[in-house]
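Troubleshooting log. The previous structure file for this entry was overwritten by mistake, so regenerating from the original sequence record. Sequence copied from the archived sheet and checked twice against the printout by T.R.
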Amino acid sequence: MKRTILTLVTLVVLALPVTAFADTLTFQAPATAPNDGNGGPNQFNLDHHQAYTWRIDNVNLSGQTITSAKLTFTNISNWDTNPNVLFIHLLDSAKNAGVASFLDAPANESPVTSIHDDFAGTYYTANPLVNAGTLNTFLASPSFTTTPVTYVYTFTSAQLTILSAYFANQNNIAFGLDPDCHFWNNGITFSMTTTPNGVPEPATLALLGTGIGGFFLKRRRKQAEV
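Regenerated output below.
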């Protein structure tokens, strides 16, 4: 009995680092305008005359749970001091693989004075980058100064559930990006952490190990009193 209990305790202790089962998947958006303006070699063009989709394909998460996700814009800044907004959406897909865009403001208009979200309302209905019925979740609408910063958007728990459902649909997702001003940057990265379904939480394993250990000590005390 003593040997059995010790074996169980050992197995629980060895199982405690559950994070070892976690896997991090990282996707780098294609560089579409490297070194243009004040952007870096990984720059994803965010021109105020365009709206964009970035589709991520062939991601099979069968048997996995997404535990965290974030979207990172490295060294992003506005090209001038005009009012600006970057509308960011999560889509369950997009018409085109990789990066696609369309002209949403006259090419000779500078600066663009109209601020509207091409992934919302009637603008979304008319958006040529998505098919009718494409599922859409708004994420954020940050603004930026002329000083570069690294902007990180972290998904909420509710958005992680939506993200999982979107991937389950066709093994792909897309981001809808509508820059209403021109944003320099050094790349966009999407990353997420997954764990296999059914892996116990660390706290659960710790409690199990504590319980077994306590049972063993109590048994030893009783044997010592006999």
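The helical segments are 2-15, 121-125, 157-170, 202-225. Archived copy saved in two places this time.
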